[in-house]
């Protein structure tokens, strides 16, 4: 009689991963996306490896990595048609590494451009926050309006300290 082999811990772990399945609702909750988004991805052919049992989508642990990539691409503003292109290339394997690399590189540059734009807007918001905070301390915008204020393009940093006493003194002299 042949001796029965005992499964190793690694084999058990692999079997456990392969056997563990998730419904669309479970995946949606874990990935923090709407189930309708996952259905849409499936309808658009972005989830080619998802199995179905009696018409129900069944996700495995290995599907989460792909979903994470899809979610990242979507959340960084990549249009669905480009995501489809990326997914199609990924299915073709190694011969498309260069094309996938270029798609990711282009998307990364778009994100960097968005970050630059947001940083530009953040400067204006920082300045306006400082402006109104200072106006609240002074009880009026008038002293601030009388001073020359830089345009957003001139702003490097929000003034750290404002001599509120000096502005109040100037305000009182003007009113006095």
What does this structure look like?
This protein has 176 residues and is mainly α. It is built from 8 helices and 3 strands. It has a domain at 19-75: Multidrug-efflux Transporter Regulator, Chain: A, Domain 2 (Orthogonal Bundle). Helix 2 packs across helix 3 (35-43) and helix 5 runs antiparallel to helix 6. The relative contact order is 0.06. It is elongated and about 85 Å long. It starts with 8 loop residues before the first helix and ends with a helix. Residues 7-13 have low confidence and may be disordered.
CATH structural architecture of the domain at 19-75: Orthogonal Bundle
Shape: elongated
Class based on secondary structure composition and strand pairing: mainly alpha
Order of helices and strands: HEHHEEHHHHH
Low-confidence stretches: 7-13
Count of separate DSSP helical elements: 8
Keywords:
single chain; 176 residues; mainly alpha; Multidrug-efflux Transporter Regulator, Chain: A, Domain 2; 3-stranded antiparallel sheet; 8 helices; Transcriptional regulator, MerR family; DNA-binding; MerR_fam
């Amino acid at each position: 009689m042949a001796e029965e082999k005992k499964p190793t811990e690694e084999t058990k772990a692999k079997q456990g991963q392969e056997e563990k399945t998730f419904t669309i609702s479970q995946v949606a909750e874990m990935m923090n996306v709407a189930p309708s988004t996952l259905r849409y991805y499936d309808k658009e052919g972005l989830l080619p490896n998802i199995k179905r049992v009696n018409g129900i989508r069944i996700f495995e642990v290995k599907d989460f990595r792909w979903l994470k990539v899809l979610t990242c691409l979507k959340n960084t503003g990549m249009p669905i048609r480009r995501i489809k292109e990326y997914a199609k290339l990924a299915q073709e394997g190694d011969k498309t590494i260069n094309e996938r690399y270029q798609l990711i590189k282009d998307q990364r540059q778009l994100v960097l451009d968005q970050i630059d734009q947001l940083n530009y807007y953040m400067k204006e918001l920082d300045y306006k926050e400082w402006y109104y905070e200072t106006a609240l301390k002074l009880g009026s915008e008038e002293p601030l309006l009388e001073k020359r204020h830089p345009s957003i393009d001139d702003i490097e940093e929000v003034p750290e300290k404002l001599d509120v006493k000096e502005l109040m003194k100037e305000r009182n002299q003007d009113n006095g």
